[in-house]
Amino acid sequence: MRYETLIGLRYTRSRKRAQGRNRFISFISLVSMLGIALGVAALITVLSVMNGFQEELRTRILGVASHAQLTAVNGDMTNWQQAAQTAAGHPDVIGTAPFVQAQGMLSFDQNVRGAMVRGILPEAENTVADFGRTMKVGALTELQPGAFGIVLGLELAQALRVRPGDKVTLIAPQGLVTPAAVLPRLKQFTVVGIFEAGMFEFDSGLALIHMRDAQVLYRMGDGVSGVRLKLDDLFAAPRVVRELAARFDTDTLLSDWTGSHANFFRAVALEKKMMAIILFLIVAVAAFNIVSTLVMAVQEKTADIAILRTLGASRGAIMAIFVLQGAIIGVVGLIAGVVGGIALATHLDVVIPALETVLGTALWNKEIYYINEMPSQVLSSDVITITAVSFVLTLVATLYPSWRGAQVNPAEALRYE
Q: Which positions ≥6 away from 39 have C-beta within 8 Å?
């Protein structure tokens, strides 16, 4: 073992009989370790929770929306079977489903609510969306052509005060022209199911009916509004859309989820970045506590440094001793923080209820967030980035005190010894 390493390790250890200033330096070193550990653990935990929210948001949105979709420029796609077959020929497309989408007004017992009406084929819809997971009452298969059944979002059903079996009136914006006036088109639908996607946008404003009933109500004949696509890899949606665009003419529009719901994911990503910056500042403050530790250590070891210099130790060797001392403090705190942060982030389902019991208050309100427990997803990329940046901050904090220690003049330091 090189003598620089041996001396650095010896300076770092707290001696049993340490007294006075040396004991205070050991205490400051311990505080620095704890500060780094707490900062790193907090950073890993918070970013893991943000990752969990991002994944939960993505799952809820794409459980109702589509990865990509094809629509016609004029709003009426008559050759949808051919379009679906062409899209299905792409190796990344694993599901296709036609749909009719239009606005409507739902009325029941003097309660009126506007809604987005989506006509679907239940069998095909299950290949592109995850309504099976979100259904609270009934099933999509209960939507039969000509039976005029309807499935409502939970918030929409509660606003209308309807239950399964009730008949609601759907008012289409297309009117019937008569000699007397233009009359709205009305049709009664029977509520056969209720879903809860966990997204207020869908739960409060989406109604599902059979595609054939939608075509009759909105006078679309055999046409549809478009075709929804499910992809093998949802993150490849922009690339798949670009590749599919070459297979269709200019009358077909292609879009994907990254464009139609970009604001949600941009907001979460921005919040994650800002939280990371704020928490990195906490880690930086803890890391730079090492500066005060090493400055005091250098002043206390001035005579030792002078003796080492007279024995032939170079300034670089002196710097290496104190850099090693500071690095050990940082690495110990860093390891403790990484282990503690991963343990905390992966056991939030146990920690949160325990804290609620101890504090006697609810930290996680299921009625507000529509999630049974706080989501958490530890990403190895986040842990590696946090570890690397924190270690660099620790090393940077050791440079100035180590440089000051290397500048000690042996003659001046030993004059009064």
A: 279, 282, 283, 285, 286, 337, 390
